[in-house]
């Protein structure tokens, strides 16, 4: 065997050249995977949000959701990173996340079948050649397509084609290397030493398992290593037993990505990463014994099938059976994760995580939905502060001034946080509709911040009234209440439009906004009349006029928020145009 490993300089260069092509093939393969996943996510953003919403139904739906999203994203690592982010911002509970993670492991097995498919073809037109043509067709679509959807379809086709091109580059590099008789003899000698012979695997099992785990952790892609394994299998350099050990290792190694993504997150997000690790380690422990003691018999049972297809079948069966075995014990896995990652004392507030987690940027369509939720929360705070300021103005009770100040400070902080997140989100690849939403959200957060500022002005008027010891006449109070009624109705309609993207309430928004403009004019007129009659003092009159203007401006900003939905909203468009 030692003799077989002695190579000439030319033989060494053959190995080096092939190694470089293999590395290049990995890069092309991963580029294709990323292109395919990101463009499917853009094209199916709404569907992904619906799928994620269904994950809350029960554990079985959660498994199906995880599998579906992983197939869409073409990466279990991307799915688990998303899940960690969702748990961190409270979009998903730990138990729901556990079932989705199990589904993600099933969804990722589709990659192995794609890779196995790439080896089909022989002397005829190969599958890789067909998909190379698919990549070209996709490229033509992206260049010639005028519609966004057509460009997305083109990019998806490019991604699929590039995946097969990368796999073909790796397979060709291995084949070229083995065309050299000396290199082939040396490589075969090396793999025979690792177990590719008739004897039962023993010490090689932990070596191959660790190799799979470490390489997957370094590449942060189980798919890339699975592609290499299948390329080696198609060249008959490794058998099914060896491949099974490496595949088991990749399942543990893929947990590195979720563990890294959980750094600096809430306790529950860390527990989500722990559940992922526990699930995959438990699955490997369950299957390592059948592989160790019955691997030869498993291989014999599948002997009529090419090794690359054997690997794909084992990969799927392994994940299906692991999920079936561990799904009934999902609550035990969650409890164990809670023991491993205990709650820190006094960390309830600190561990909540950012309201807009940067991990959500990996799924822009869902990130856009989360921004909308934060804007709605900001709207509720701004309007509640307006109501509180008006109440202080009527009652003269300033005891809740500190509460008002806290909310106003939070509104300003939220505004900065949302803007910062939107800047990062706008740099991601997003659909045309989401791009319109992101653009409008910048204006919405500014409008909401201004509503908070006008509420602060009204609170200051309440302070001045208390300081000057003045009050409004009953007539003036009645006009203020009527203006407030229109603003309240306006807020309800605007909130509905923005929350649902439904434009059917736009006519109501227009009516109420016009009513606030009319009330402002009426209040100005009525004030002059009261001043002439001597009913109103100069101090109270000045505050009344400023109050009327500020309330009318609040209505303007609410109107702006509703109109921001028109470029991408649905329903009621005709009614809006008619008005």
Structure description:
This protein is an all-alpha fold. It has two domains: 3-179 and 200-340, no CATH class; 363-578, Methane Monooxygenase Hydroxylase, Chain G, domain 1. It has helices spanning 9-43, 45-54, 59-73, 76-88, 94-107, 109-117, 127-144, 148-178, 181-193, 204-219, 222-234, 240-253, 255-261, 267-301, 307-326, 330-340, 364-395, 401-426, 432-468, 474-500, 506-533, 538-563, 573-578. The chain is elongated and about 110 Å long. 49% of the residues are buried. Residues 1-5, 346-354 and 573-579 have low confidence and may be disordered.
Question: Which structural class do the helices and strands define?
Answer: mainly alpha
Q: What is the averaged pLDDT score? A: 79
- Span between N and C termini? 87 Å
Oligomeric category: single chain
Cα-atom Rg, whole angstroms? 32 Å
Following the backbone from N to C, one meets helices and strands in this order, namely: HHHHHHHHHHHHHHHHHHHHHHH
What's the domain count? Answer: 2
């Amino acid at each position: 065997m030692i003799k077989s490993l002695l190579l000439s300089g030319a033989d060494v260069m053959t190995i080096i050249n092939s190694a470089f092509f293999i590395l290049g093939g990995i890069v092309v393969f991963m580029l294709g995977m990323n292109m395919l996943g990101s463009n499917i996510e853009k094209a199916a953003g709404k569907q992904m949000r619906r799928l994620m919403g269904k994950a809350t139904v029960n554990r079985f739906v959660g498994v199906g959701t995880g599998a579906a999203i992983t197939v869409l994203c073409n990466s279990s690592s991307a799915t688990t990173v998303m899940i960690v982010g969702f748990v961190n911002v409270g979009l998903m509970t730990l138990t729901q996340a556990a079932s989705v993670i199990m589904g993600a492991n099933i969804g990722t097995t589709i990659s192995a079948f794609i890779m196995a498919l790439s080896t089909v073809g022989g002397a005829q037109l190969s599958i890789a050649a067909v998909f190379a043509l698919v990549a070209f067709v996709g490229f033509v679509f992206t260049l010639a397509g005028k519609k966004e959807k057509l460009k997305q379809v083109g990019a998806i086709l490019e991604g699929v084609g590039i995946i097969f091109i990368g796999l073909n580059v790796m397979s060709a590099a291995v084949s070229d290397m083995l065309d050299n008789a000396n290199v082939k003899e040396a490589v075969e000698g090396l793999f025979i030493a690792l177990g590719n012979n008739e004897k039962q695997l023993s010490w090689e099992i932990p070596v191959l398992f660790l190799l799979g785990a470490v390489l997957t952790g370094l590449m942060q892609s189980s798919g890339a290593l699975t592609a290499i394994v299948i390329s080696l299998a198609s060249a008959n350099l490794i058998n099914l037993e060896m491949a099974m050990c490496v595949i088991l290792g990749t399942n543990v190694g893929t947990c590195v990505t979720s563990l890294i993504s959980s750094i600096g997150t809430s306790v529950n997000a860390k527990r989500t990463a722990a559940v992922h690790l526990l699930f995959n380690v438990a699955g490997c422990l369950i299957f390592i014994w059948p592989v160790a003691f019955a691997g030869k018999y498993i291989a014999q049972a599948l002997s009529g099938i090419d090794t690359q297809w054997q690997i794909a079948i084992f990969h799927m069966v392994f994940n299906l059976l692991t999920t079936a075995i561990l799904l009934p014990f999902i609550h035990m896995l969650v409890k164990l994760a809670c023991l491993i990652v205990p709650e820190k004392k006094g960390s309830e507030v600190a561990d909540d995580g950012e309201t807009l987690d940067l991990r959500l940027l990996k799924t822009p369509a869902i990130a856009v939905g989360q921004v909308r939720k934060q804007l709605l929360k900001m709207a509720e705070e701004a309007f509640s502060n307006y109501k509180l300021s008006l109440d202080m103005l009527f009652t003269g009770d300033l005891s809740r001034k500190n509460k008002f100040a806290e909310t106003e400070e939070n509104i300003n902080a939220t505004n900065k946080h949302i803007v910062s997140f939107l800047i990062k989100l706008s740099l991601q690849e997003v659909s045309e509709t989401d791009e319109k939403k992101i653009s409008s959200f910048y204006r919405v957060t500014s409008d909401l911040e201004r509503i908070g500022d006008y509420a602060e002005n009204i609170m200051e008027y309440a302070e001045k009234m208390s300081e000057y010891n003045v009050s409004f006449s009953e007539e003036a109070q009645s006009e203020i209440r009527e203006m407030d009624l229109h603003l309240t109705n306006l807020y309800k309609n605007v909130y509905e439009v923005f929350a649902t993207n439904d434009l059917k309430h736009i006519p109501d928004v227009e009516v109420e906004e016009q009513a606030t403009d009319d009330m402002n004019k009426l209040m100005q007129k009525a004030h002059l009349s009261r001043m002439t009659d001597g009913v109103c003092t100069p101090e109270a009159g000045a505050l009344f006029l400023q109050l009327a203007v500020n309330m009318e401006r609040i209505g303007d900003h609410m109107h702006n928020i509703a109109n921001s939905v028109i470029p991408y909203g649905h329903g009621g468009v005709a009614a809006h145009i008619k008005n």
